[in-house]
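Subject: complex prediction, re-run

Hi both,

The earlier run crashed halfway through, so I resubmitted it with identical inputs.
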Amino acid sequence: MDIDPIWEDVTAVAHRLRATGYVPSDHIVNVAFLADRLGKPVLCEGPAGVGKTELAKAIAEASGRRLIRLQCYEGLDEAKALYEWNYKKQLLRIQADQAEAHDWYEIEDSIFSEPFLLTRPLLEAIRSPEPVVLLVDEVDRVEIETEALLLEVLSDFQVSIPELGTIQAKSRPTVLLTSNNTRELSEALKRRCLYLFVDYPDIEREQEIIRSRVPDATEHLADQVSRIVRSIRSIDLKKPPSISEAIDWARTLMLLGVRDVDADTAKATLNVLLKYQTDIEKATKELDTSA
Amino acid sequence: MTGAGIDARAASETLAEGLSRTMLLFIEELRTVGVPVSVAEALDALRAVQIVDLEDRNAFKAALGATLVKNVSHWAAFETAFDVFFSLAPGESVGGGEPEQDLPPELRIPPAGQGAAGGGGDVEDLVESLLRALQDYDDARLRALARMAVSEFAGMEPGRPVGGTYYLYRTLRGVELEALLERILQHARDGVVDRTGASPTPLEERLLREEIEARMERFKDEVKAEIRRRLVDDRGAEALAKTLRKPLLEEVDFMHATSVEMRELRRAVAPLARRLAARLARRRRHRRRGRLDVRRTMRESLSSGGVPLEPRFKHPNPTKPEIMLLCDISGSVASFARFTLQFVYAMSMQFSKVRAFVFIDDIDEVTEYFDTDDLGKALLDINQHAKVVWIDGHSDYGHALVRFNESWGRDVSAKTSILVTGDARNNYHASEAEVLADLGRTARHVYWLNPEPLSYWDTGDSVMSEYGAHCDGVHEVRNLRQLEEFIETLLEAH
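This time it finished cleanly. Structure:
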């Protein structure tokens, strides 16, 4: 297994990610480059809706590699993440073989071989002949015990199957893990990853994001949207507006034919940005005061 | 004489050695302030800096940050240490150097000593240039001006043991940043009037002000960085790092938190409570107790030809505790009461019922004030309306307990856990500890949370052990981490 770097240099990272419509910050570019060169997974943390999953998609697109996604949820287990024996097929095989009176050891060997293996995302990423991008999404949702499943894949890029032995990666996948920080991840997992905290963007970057995602929006509108969103984020809210909500808001304003956002338009469309009634009330009140 | 090639190699070797020595000291410093850095991570960092372009300060910082810091709450500590240890390192030179060369002559740093001696005209020039730089978004100029402002106003003297904040204050006072804000704002307002013929709406005004404040913040950061750079020059990185060490947020003592720390703490409570709730819920679900669920087991077995391969269980619904919270809100422990209230209410989904009482020398129920989402408002209402003063407004735990027992004692049931928070400093009043014992006989549990260090208990007018004798547990809770630990054991024990 050899490391096959995606990017020639740091500027190539920025350039090629931008070409996919993803607008990375300097920090994201630097960490993405480093991860590629060190061959380490990246753990992305940050509030919901700042583009953590998008980053993985953009990297896949920019590198022309296939994206394999493992969506985590409570109760995710080995059988759903790594591999599973297709026991129905195995049962059929045993029944078919019994008719021909085969030796049991022969049957056992045959039913624990690759044709009876159902590959799940992690194993699939390891077995792929060409390098892939593996996205382990919302890893904080799995139980701490299940996290251990990931460790072997993340540090050694291999999977051990008792009946088959260890399967080594044919090519080293680019791995991204995302977490919304609903719980502390284990030290063991963090140690194996590079850490990337993705926060709400600064105003210039948010403008650029809006312009790239809503191409019809004028510079003026994108500027206003990003400023008002920043202003709303500074209020103490239950759930501050995310980038994706800012984009939705810009789209809504475009659809409504708004070219210039004033306080009344902003207040009338706040429900696109904010999802709690108390937040909307609070923001409405704040937008009417000057400081 | 050695050849030039060998010289160059020797030079680069010493450079690399110097860098890794600084990095090891830096990692040591991170560990000292409480950022856990494993050996594997330190090795990763050493590998990472070989890959990045050392001339690019941001890339260098990203390399260290991504390999060494795995928790966002440690980032601030990392940044402080980074600024101290690598302020001179890769790419950036202090005083002189390339950055200024493309600046107009009036912005170049005057030779040492001349700046402070400069007349009033220079100061005005500086303020005017700053005004222009802030208006034009000119970052390079802003950096140069920050350096000039520090030379001009900070009055830094070598060897003086004052901290960076003192110099920061002097510099900002020197350029009169607040007045500048108003001037730029006025200028921007005029711009709006010129363009639209009307004065800005409140929303526009708000956006303008925020924009200017953001730019000022950038200038302040430059000033801070410059001061730090000079302090490192003067005292050396390790010595300076020692004076800048701050405890991590979860270990900040409630009783001695600064107002900035207070604000950060308040913001940290909700996410902390959310994480704790998620952790508890998960653990509860996974306790493998419960009866066999015959129906679900049979249903599952259909997919394996009627063979029940995997048994399914019914998990019992856990009972939730009922909480009565009694908080001392007298001056000395008010902030602690605030955090306890905030934390318990953030966790209120975990309890079947929460009732809150506050006291000083009299006690009042404040449960109804928490019927809002806005905790700040609830606390404000409590301060204004709760009747907590009986005679003199000095804590009297005894009287508060007696009054509580009279008015609400009959509401205490075998499901209730009573939580008392306070330092048990009773101002030499009667402790009335037997009232607490009475309550304890009915209630399921009585816990006492004391924000004072264990060693102070029972000194002076503290009667902690008199009350403690009748409690199921007395806990020292001085910081967020201890508070979290207590709430966790409380819910686990249930």
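The longest strand of chain B covers residues 322-328.

- K.
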